Amino acid sequence: MAKKLMKGSEAIGEAAVQAGCKLFYGYPITPQNEIPEYMSHRLPQIGGTFVQAESEVSASNMLYGAAGSGERVMTSSSSPGISLMTEAISYMAGSELPVVLVNIMRAGPGLGGILPSQADYFQATKGGGHGDYRLLVLAPWSVQEAADLVQDGFDLADHYRNPVMILGDGLIGQMMEPVEFHKDRKPIKELKEKIWAATGYDGTRPRAIINSLFLDPATLEKHNHKLQAKYAEMTRDEIRYETYGTDKDYDILIVAYGTVARVCSTAMEDLEADGIKAAMIRPISLFPFPYEAIRKAADKADAVLVVELSAGQMIEDVRLALEGNKPIHFHGRMGGMLASPEEVMEKVKEIKAGKSQEVSHV
Amino acid sequence: MAKKLMKGSEAIGEAAVQAGCKLFYGYPITPQNEIPEYMSHRLPQIGGTFVQAESEVSASNMLYGAAGSGERVMTSSSSPGISLMTEAISYMAGSELPVVLVNIMRAGPGLGGILPSQADYFQATKGGGHGDYRLLVLAPWSVQEAADLVQDGFDLADHYRNPVMILGDGLIGQMMEPVEFHKDRKPIKELKEKIWAATGYDGTRPRAIINSLFLDPATLEKHNHKLQAKYAEMTRDEIRYETYGTDKDYDILIVAYGTVARVCSTAMEDLEADGIKAAMIRPISLFPFPYEAIRKAADKADAVLVVELSAGQMIEDVRLALEGNKPIHFHGRMGGMLASPEEVMEKVKEIKAGKSQEVSHV
Amino acid sequence: MQNDVIMAGFGGQGILLIGKMLAYTGMQEGLEVSWMPSYGPEMRGGTANCTVVISDRPVGSPVIQSPRAVVAMNLPSLDKFEPMVRKGGLLLINSSLIDRSSTRDDIRILLVPANDIAMELKNPRGGNMVALGAYVGSSHAVPIDAVERVVRETFSSKPQVIDANIAALHRGYELGEQAVA
Amino acid sequence: MQNDVIMAGFGGQGILLIGKMLAYTGMQEGLEVSWMPSYGPEMRGGTANCTVVISDRPVGSPVIQSPRAVVAMNLPSLDKFEPMVRKGGLLLINSSLIDRSSTRDDIRILLVPANDIAMELKNPRGGNMVALGAYVGSSHAVPIDAVERVVRETFSSKPQVIDANIAALHRGYELGEQAVA
Amino acid sequence: MSQIVINPDRCKGCELCVHACPQKILGMGKTLNAKGYFYAEVEEQKRCIGCRLCCITCPDVAIEMHSHGTMYHYFSY
Amino acid sequence: MSQIVINPDRCKGCELCVHACPQKILGMGKTLNAKGYFYAEVEEQKRCIGCRLCCITCPDVAIEMHSHGTMYHYFSY
Amino acid sequence: MSEAVFKNPGSLADVQTHYCPGCTHGVIHRMVAEIVDELGVKERTIGIAPVGCAVLAYNYFNLDFHEASHGRAPAVATGIKRARPDLMVFAYQGDGDLASIGAAEIVHCANRGEKVTVVFVNNAIYGMTGGQMAPTTLPGQIATTCPTGRDTDLAGFPIRIAEMLSTLRTPAFIARASVHKPIYAVHAKQMLREAFTYQKDDRCFSLVEILSTCPTNWGIPPAESTEWLEKNMIPYYPLGVFKRPDGEDRAPLPIRPARRPHHAE
Amino acid sequence: MSEAVFKNPGSLADVQTHYCPGCTHGVIHRMVAEIVDELGVKERTIGIAPVGCAVLAYNYFNLDFHEASHGRAPAVATGIKRARPDLMVFAYQGDGDLASIGAAEIVHCANRGEKVTVVFVNNAIYGMTGGQMAPTTLPGQIATTCPTGRDTDLAGFPIRIAEMLSTLRTPAFIARASVHKPIYAVHAKQMLREAFTYQKDDRCFSLVEILSTCPTNWGIPPAESTEWLEKNMIPYYPLGVFKRPDGEDRAPLPIRPARRPHHAE
Ligand SMILES: Cc1ncc(C[n+]2csc(CCOP(=O)(O)OP(=O)(O)O)c2C)c(N)n1
Ligand SMILES: Cc1ncc(C[n+]2csc(CCOP(=O)(O)OP(=O)(O)O)c2C)c(N)n1
Ligand code: SF4
Ligand code: SF4
Ligand code: SF4
Ligand code: SF4
Ligand code: SF4
Ligand code: SF4
Ligand SMILES: [Mg+2]
Ligand SMILES: [Mg+2]
């Protein structure tokens, strides 16, 4: 298919449709209203169904039901709305249901603001809901990648029977860029028939029970071990990241994800012009996190700079990756303020000049 | 006052009353029903008010309102119920309101089971809700300590204008132990008048607006910086932990919190009888986390063992504390299964014998 | 010194109550105590149990995997807890409702026809008191007169049942003491 | 080579639309592009702006702090974005609605009476097209005939307005080119 | 002819059937079942009119009704 | 006697007052205010009957009514 | 030859439930299973278990089942039904689940007219969690969170779900029945049958509120509980059909605004 | 001497709002402020701002204010009122906020009989987020998430909050008014005054649903919007008082179960 100039939100919707998603349950919230709006006109065209739920609590439980029936389903929201979904997300993870959840992050806490942020990193990667569960979290940095990750997300969700979260920021939702959808896209995983789905018990297979309750603690522990084994498998097989300029020599390694990584890439070019050597690693899967890759990429560098639109959340994972081997610096913006290439350059120069304070160890 | 034999849940309720909490808004959930039940008969005795909310979503928003009027208020719940409160918790943190939240953790994910667990550590310490906020999290290991921490919690909440979470497990809620309330307890912090509370605008002070919305990103960033500065202050002043046997020599340092630390203390005694030297450090404040103290305590040890009723969540903070300096081992139970002293002993012996596998670095 | 016991039976047999009374007595005697009920899935199934720890030092784990004593008031409880009794420990079996003993030879076994004795004493609901007395008699975890005081206090609002319960308590105690002797 | 521009004005002046058309043209020409609207609090305040980046390499930051060009269609936009124009960059001022120029001497300033020209052309809503043309004329970010094709495509469902808009576009373009020359 | 069969292991001894029977021919037994309940018993089968009220009322589906030959139902259920 | 005062900077030009006035003495002006709106004006003050409907209808509290001496109100508000 | 004319229906699993002796949840389970059998829709029926005493319902029905988070069964039902309109979907909910935490979900499920069936078991108490006050607890009734009885000045009056939902304009079948005595149960079953039939015919949302006992948390033995229900609950919660889909004409009032709304640009 | 007989009420801040031209949120704000002034309760009134176009209401009232998370204003109001019964508490909510996500909170706040006042602004659309369908959107009305008009077969009929809440047994004052034209606004103000007065007299919960325009998202200029409201909304949402606290007698039906409920031990 030819390239189309699309808003990120619409590309996400279209990517879902292309991936065979026929059902969308959602509730409006800025800055991602264009996703439900797109789905409300697009899905009827392909015989699908859009339901505007009465709330995010309800939307996430609708998703829970629909996924249990084996269909490909998606919802999207932004930060406060995702908080309201955490209970159901924990249920879906516990019941091992494949769903795609999109969080177009805005600034918090509370009602906060509607501008871009990355302050839901912890919520997405460590579990906003209760209990030991993990989402597979993918963070795009462009509209095209958002579309691609949504499509991959459906395959991964089905393969692992696990919720997948697409974690974008307000920029991803609002900006327009060229997007291409590949007609003959093949699933990235071998997909099995969903014999576990609750579609009516006709005696030809065991009864399907979509459930996260196990009153017997030994059984529940076993179930948890099974989940953990699955997360370990993801950690082995699903790590995604990209590196920029790591083939050359460099003094500073930048770690950033999402659109702020693009800001950093602009800064890198300008730094190069100024004769400062920097490379970048961009985690794409936030869970599983590319610890190993970051550790390796940091080898050549004298120092590491983490850039986030938050008070510093991913930085904990970077610290876990590096375990004190390299000095780590941080540049963060909050409240919907964006980091600019100029700021990042400035920070890198400070690090080089020994004027930036290292992030304290403990 | 003389010692009373009390259920942990009731002691938590009584401690709140003693701390001047006159308002409780809550919704039933096992294993902490005795808290709202206790409050429903106790509060009317002192002219206070118990409201059974229609849900945890509503309870947390009632709390939001009541705290905004300057009163000392509390709610309690268990894991799934806390997930439903995450949006309001983020609002309360963003609006800088002092409230005490009790989570008597049960096993998850999803509906899970009702037996004890510590799998909400991430949710409590890294932020279950959206945005960059932190709760001050205190984890008791006995009924007496639960009562004490609740009382301290009210003072800390008022002092920092920040939500405080008491993070207990099912055992804390259900077991009975002797408790003593001190009649002339003094606040642990100097408490200022709550001039910020919304109690009616009579022109004698600026208008009180309880709010977390800041549409201008620069203003919201400033607000976030203020919050972060507060969290830094907590990190400086409010770290709590206890050590056991660290004055002597030891080979193994155990890190555990909550009732499972008692299991470990029993194991320690039995290990001593077997001639194996182990010490323990027990974080009481989970945010702020005693990184420095753990790093120091680990100095003497050959290896560190983290014990949790989860798949391993606090272990990330322990790894951040140690930054690869010591081998770390983990023993965890899930699903409501409890770790026994025998298991812990066994694990320690395995570590000594070089038979336990170290937790992988990245 | 630590004493710990799991008491188990049908809901309604007053198991949790005697556990609380035991813990309360320990506390009155200046000892460290904890009382932990089962609250798991078995609850609706009609069985109940609790673990009481009495110690002269702060109580470590309030949940005991290998208790020093088990009081089994019905068959399912015996089946469940018999294997857990610590070597050299005590297994008290309510022989009124359980018509088997234990085959373990590494523990002390005490058969107490608790309900029959209670019936005899015209205190049909007093089986739990007999069991409590028997446990105290054979463990000496707390002094029996301290238990007696707690019984009086516990039933102070129902004075008519006090004497019958104390009688049951003492009959149990005697059986317990004899068994140890 | 990268071109980037912030276009800003009242909501209703068609700012976001010309930004999209510019980006779309870039894409048609095989270039890398991004278009980023303001969606912040200012929206309800009645102003709108967007940032368009056109580049021969993948677009880095889609948000530009020091843009190479600014198109200011009303006074608040001029006030806001004037200081941000990169040294040596271009500031295009809609002099129909803004009765001041800029005092900066490190940038190129282009006064375009966009609404007046549109009125003249009997296309009262065509001020945005004039501005687009002027930007393209002075930046050569994309070829003007490519823009023309996009205009035709964009308005294909309202053929009656095509010619007027293309006329406006070209008048703008001429002004832009002259200014550069 | 109707025959009422009560499954002792299913019965929880709630006595609802005893109250429901218009013929008062059900009663509570004196033996405990495996779960520890005194269970219901048919005391006078021959007076049973096959109304099924006991079956309908039993929350534990412990009561079955069997018929010999065609039966007239007093009400549709 | 009533006098209607419209604050040009408050007015958003919605025209609701123009429609509300039973005397039809309000109209939209031809100048833009600071916010970029054409604002409402009183065209014929002397025909004003002081009914306050314009005041009541204005969503932006842009209209004040002043009175000289005692006024009779057509309806209580 | 003897033939079983009353026995465990095929859609009910042949296992003992965890319900307390005399708890009428069991009666309602059996009747729902009987209707699924009678309508011949067993192979395409999905049940939704609530959070409440019926949380284990998935063990008791011989059907595919789905869990819901507390109160959200109508949302889960919506999710399934919209995904698979060919399936029969019923949610089984208690009064705490449906009338308290799940109030928004039931109102909106009914209001959207989802073609699902809700079996609403009102026992005026939170059974599962040990007897707390429900929104349906009667004035003066004692519960663990209203130890001196529900005080209407503090907690308001019990909520009447059937009546409240019946005010919605969207066509629906809404009824209230009771199962405390067999003759009432017969009526309840008729209501349930009608409700499931509306779904089978793809007509409308249906809900049957069923008054039920909770001997354990009421603290009243089973047989007395049935009397208590009859004496106290039925006067406050009258039985009957409150709404049928044909009760309101369906003229769709086709109104459109003058133009398509435009976004701020 | 000239005297201002109509001007900005003291409880309203003297600032320009962010509302779109002709949006009747402004009229409702002013009337609420006038009533607070008239009742002389300014010094003890707390307003609660919703999440919706009125989210910034705290900037527009000269009163202490409290934010609520989306839909939960009635819970926030409950929290404040129970903590400080001496305060006057009102929640200001839109139709998405109150009737959609906040349905449970409003039903239970009303049902508990919280002595607070709710000003419910029904403009049949989600204004703040750019014109999505609300539960109150009329059949056939176009919105960004029902681009071909609300289809009652898929989304059901619009929810009538005043009618629904009026079925609750707990005493309350519930009314519906409109502000699209001044004469309706006069009536709306009377309703609001009555509502606030019930609270001032410590009598009952009160709610006034007020029909309001959203010219921007309806895509209809302000003056035409008022016509559209009158022609389309009022027939579906009739105006008037639906419930007064003395409309139902308050006999408290004192029922108690035979014994205190006991826990499973
Ligand atoms: C989010 C959440 N809140 C609370 C609970 C605890 N809880 C379990 S069941 C229940 C109420 C059950 O009452 P009801 O719905 O009336 O059902 P019943 O047991 O009476 O049949 C509650 C509050 C929970 N599991 N999840
Ligand atoms: C939890 C959550 N979900 C969604 C939103 C997004 N949101 C903001 S306002 C609004 C709806 C507003 O509509 P309404 O209540 O009718 O008020 P109006 O703007 O029409 O006055 C929504 C969905 C949010 N802020 N928080
Ligand atoms: S109704 Fe059923 S469970 Fe109850 S006593 Fe009769 S047979 Fe037993
Ligand atoms: S069928 Fe009728 S008459 Fe026969 S036992 Fe049952 S209830 Fe009694
Ligand atoms: S007071 Fe009445 S007559 Fe006078 S301008 Fe206003 S609306 Fe017109
Ligand atoms: S009603 Fe008010 S805002 Fe609208 S035109 Fe009149 S004065 Fe201006
Ligand atoms: S607690 Fe009540 S509702 Fe639950 S099973 Fe027992 S009697 Fe039934
Ligand atoms: S969007 Fe609608 S409701 Fe919101 S301010 Fe504008 S006109 Fe009013
Ligand atoms: Mg119930
Ligand atoms: Mg609205």
UniProtKB/TrEMBL annotation, chains A, B:
Keywords tagged on the record: Oxidoreductase
CDD domains assigned: TPP_PYR_PFOR_IOR-alpha_like
Domain spans labelled Pyruvate flavodoxin/ferredoxin oxidoreductase pyrimidine binding: 14-210
GO function terms (MF aspect): oxidoreductase activity
A Pfam family matched in the record: POR_N
Keyword Ion transport: no
InterPro entries: 2-oxoacid_oxidoreductase (IPR052368), PFOR_II (IPR033412), Pyrv_Fd/Flavodoxin_OxRdtase_N (IPR002880), THDP-binding (IPR029061), Transketo_C/PFOR_II (IPR009014)
PANTHER family registered for this protein in UniProt: SUBUNIT OF PYRUVATE:FLAVODOXIN OXIDOREDUCTASE (PTHR43088:SF1), SUBUNIT OF PYRUVATE:FLAVODOXIN OXIDOREDUCTASE-RELATED (PTHR43088)
Protein name: 3-methyl-2-oxobutanoate dehydrogenase subunit VorB
Source organism (scientific name): Candidatus Polarisedimenticola svalbardensis
From TrEMBL, chains C, D:
Source domain of life: Bacteria
Keywords: Oxidoreductase
GO molecular function: oxidoreductase activity, acting on the aldehyde or oxo group of donors
Coiled-coil zones: none
Start and end residues of each Pyruvate/ketoisovalerate oxidoreductase catalytic domain: 11-174
Matches recorded under PANTHER family: 2-OXOGLUTARATE SYNTHASE SUBUNIT KORC
This protein's name: 2-oxoacid:acceptor oxidoreductase family protein
Automatic annotation (TrEMBL), chains E, F:
Protein's UniProt keywords contain Iron-sulfur: yes
Recorded GO MF terms: iron-sulfur cluster binding; metal ion binding
Source organism superkingdom: Bacteria
SUPFAM superfamilies for this protein: 4Fe-4S ferredoxins
Key words, A-Z: Iron, Iron-sulfur, Metal-binding
Domain 4Fe-4S ferredoxin-type intervals: 2-31, 38-68
Keyword Repeat: no
Entries under PROSITE patterns matching the protein: 4FE4S_FER_1 (PS00198), 4FE4S_FER_2 (PS51379)
Protein name per UniProt: 4Fe-4S binding protein
Organism (species): Candidatus Polarisedimenticola svalbardensis
Automatic annotation (TrEMBL), chains G, H:
Signal peptide: none
GO BP annotations, alphabetical order: cellular respiration; small molecule metabolic process
Residue span, Thiamine pyrophosphate enzyme TPP-binding domain: 59-196
InterPro entries in the record: 2-oxoacid:Fd_oxidoreductase, THDP-binding, TPP_enzyme_TPP-bd
Assigned keywords, A-Z: Oxidoreductase
A Pfam family hit: TPP_enzyme_C
Molecular function GO labels: oxidoreductase activity, acting on the aldehyde or oxo group of donors, iron-sulfur protein as acceptor; thiamine pyrophosphate binding
PANTHER family in the record: 2-OXOGLUTARATE OXIDOREDUCTASE SUBUNIT KORB-RELATED, SUBUNIT OF PYRUVATE:FLAVODOXIN OXIDOREDUCTASE
UniProt-recorded name of the protein: 2-oxoglutarate oxidoreductase
